[in-house]
Amino acid sequence: MASDTRKAVRPGGYAVEQKPSSETPVSIQPDTLALKQKAEEEGLETIWERFAAQQPECGFCQLGLSCRICAMGPCRIDPFGDGPQRGICGADADIMVARNLARMVAGGAAAHSDHGRDLVETLLAVAEGHAPGYQLTDLAKLDRIAAEYGVAPELPPLTKARELALAMMEEYGIKKGHLTFTKRLPATRLEKWQALGITPRGIDWEIAEMMHRTHMGVDNDPVNLLLQALRTALADGWGGSMIATELSDILFGTPQPAASQANIGVLKADQVNIILHGHNPLVSEMVVRAAQDPELLQRARELGAQGINLVGLCCTGNEVLMRKGIPMAGNHLVQELALITGAVEAILVDYQCILPSLGDLAACYHTIFFSTSPKAKFPKATHLAFTPETGEALGREVVARAVENYARRNPERVFIPASPVQQFTGFSVEAILAALGGTPEPLLEAIKAGQLRGAVGVVGCNNPKVTQDFGHTTLTRELIARDILVLDTGCAAVAHAKAGLKVPEAAELAGDGLKAVCRSLNIPPVLHMGSCVDNTRILALVAALAQALGVDTDQLPVAAAAPEWYSEKAVAIASYAVASGVFTVLGVVPPVLGSKTVTEVLLKGLTQHLGACFAVEPDPKKAAALIIRHIEEKRRGLGLEARGV
Ligand code: BF8
Ligand code: SF4
User: Fold this and answer.
1) Rounded CA gap, 531 and 526, in Å?
2) Domains and CATH numbers, the chain
3) Suppose 328 and one of 262, 301, 522, 632 were both cysteines; which one would form an S-S bond, judging by CB atoms 3.0 to 4.6 Å apart?
4) How far apart are the C-alpha atoms of 369 and 380, rounded to whole Å?
5) Ligand 2 centroid vs 75 CA: distance in angstroms?
6) What is the distance in A from the centroid of ligand 1 to the CA of 279?
7) Average pLDDT value for residue range 451-480
């Protein structure tokens, strides 16, 4: 492999530097490096070998200049101008790039929103008595959300839940034509959307229309395509994802601050280990319950285990961490390595971000790989189909089979190369406001006084293109050192936890102002707000702060960053963040550089209409500098004291 840095440039456009994989260290995390070594010793392939085998990745695809939407193609456009400049249908670079990006947004919005749909269906099943084991847990939240949807307040809880579920189902279709949660935003934001024609109508509506408009021969105006992509993303952020978060809280409880642990050391050599992986808490919550069953615990002891140990991975891990304090084994790039510990009796998955290679790896050990969603089947998995009716029994079956499987473990192959790191979790908006005495006022006062400069959501994935967790932790350390509060979700949250940034003592790394705030509230400088659908908690907080200050969201000293993103969902999240007024910095270059028009709309053009835009900056220290400058500019705009702008 070439050791020099390649440079892909579109004439007259933007440049992106791509480092060959051989130069990129795998991870900053010792547990990842140790298990990667074990994988090599055992001759097992992981994501990094497959990444290397794909090099060099296709330059056309990296620039967004390839298309396989129809069977006249596939087509490519030559970025250097020597070869074809149009696809067979006549699509130019702008159309091709815009269509490809728009389809990424549609894919991401569909994933989150279909997750939300499963929660709505389960809420309805609970209300109608068809979901044994499930219940309404946060009745106060049910009251609040039902009120937002105009459900009569006097109804008894189950009836209210039924009405709410039916009202939410309408949001997926075309019956209402607007999404209820957008009313949380200042009117000025909604007016901006109205002016651009991007107010989200129905969740499935926007996603389907996006797919329609990117069919050959439909929407061939790149800007018009991008606007619909924003509308689709907003249907995710203020629709499907927000519904997923709010209903998960109603069904399983709204998170409250709690202590837990992180890294691969949360696996226990002397216990039955079960990993909960994926995104949706519906099945995993039932596993959490079954793992407390005295009969199953007794059986585990009979087989020589000291207990039943549940741990999380990725966003299902975040869901059960936030609500139940279940420790977190790792983020996206740890999923294969977790099996390579040889200590896992069962891994249970639902959907999204689950590597299709897991079945092969599980088969190299005694691990049972359970898939649970009829929407997501995997090679070499044991499938147990979840429905609201079967969830409770399914949870018990998983635990029972995992316990029996302990007898098949080969202790000689077990390697758990780390001690767990402490972390604090559970910072829902409700919990943050409660810590502040019930109102955002103290937070705003700290911002006005300059003690806190602002707040940034550091979110998103791991990506083998980036040294694992380097982007997240480097950026976050820079931000907290400058008195910027960090809110995290998803795999970024796991990165921060493993790096020890999620304990109150980490305030020592913060600037004097943030340190004082953390000490007075006994909180870490990095607050865990949940899984990726829970980015909507950050949205809701931003909206509440804007309302409290009487300004639009884009006037706030806030920003977002996804330093190591990989997924279509991340594209949807970043898009709804920008459309919601939040400046967003991506650490991995999206496949848009093949179109100057699209690139300029995203990096500049959106600002005049939405007050926010994207930036792309792979170097986390430079990304921090961009964000710090942005926050100080916003402070100045609000008439607050600003540093160095
Ligand atoms: O939804 S952060 S790698 S696990 S996509 Fe996936 Fe990315 Fe992780 Fe969570 Ni979000
Ligand atoms: Fe080629 Fe156009 Fe078909 Fe795409 S839609 S594959 S550019 S002919």
Assistant:
1) 15
2) 93-252 (1.20.1270.30), 264-413 (3.40.50.2030), 426-637 (3.40.50.2030)
3) 262
4) 8
5) 6
6) 8
7) 98
